[in-house]
């Protein structure tokens, strides 16, 4: 009896879902959890602590014109893998920060570079190539990872800060992009279905399935 294969595009959606999940759990959305411990440890002002996420967001947006051509040239596989490695490096460096300018460098500049390679510019461009009729569904599932990441990672990170301190928490968080986002991106992300002999939405697979089903009768 013929068994229908899962369209490869849904593996792409799954990889992006986890990239969004883990990315939201180590980026700007959870920065506020470190606000009080970093302020107490480094004696920084409220203004100083409020600037890094703002600068990071601005830097990420300004990198859009750079990342766009890169995803066209190299595809999402290598770009997202590289972004995850940079994001992990940035997160680990945050555990060594001793002053305001180091936080700006590690979180706002290096961190933004990694995040830009994992941003919607890369993921949405890829999904648009893999899905046409089901693009809304695929994008919706992948984007849900952001909200899931914020909801699940925030309490876990707060527990880590409470029990092991803010510096060790950044070190643990660095493992997320290194052990989860980078491997899944490298294994599953691909530029387009045509590269694998497929068509958007799995149409070629469906045609083959019908032919195989007919042959089996």
Strand-helix topology:
Elements: H1 9-24, H2 28-31, H3 35-42, H4 46-62, H5 64-74, H6 76-94, H7 100-116, H8 120-130, H9 135-164, H10 166-188, H11 203-216
Written account of the structure:
It contains eleven helices and no strands. The chain has 217 residues and is mainly alpha-helical. The chain has one domain: Growth Hormone, Chain: A. Helix 1 runs antiparallel to helix 8 (120-130), helix 5 crosses helix 6 and helix 9 packs antiparallel against helix 10 (166-188).
Defining key terms:
single chain, mainly alpha, Growth Hormone, Chain: A, 217 residues
For the terminal residues, how far apart are their CA atoms?
A: 10 Å
How many beta strands in the DSSP annotation?
A: 0
Percent range for helical residues?
Answer: over 70%
CATH architecture name: Up-down Bundle
Oligomeric state of the chains? single chain
Output the CATH class name: Mainly Alpha
Order of helices and strands: HHHHHHHHHHH
Average pLDDT taken over every residue = 90
**How many discrete structural domains?**
1
What's the short story on this structure?
With 217 residues, the protein is an all-alpha fold. Helices cover 78% and strands 0% of the residues. The chain has helices at residues 9-24, 28-31, 35-42, 46-62, 64-74, 76-94, 100-116, 120-130, 135-164, 166-188, 203-216.
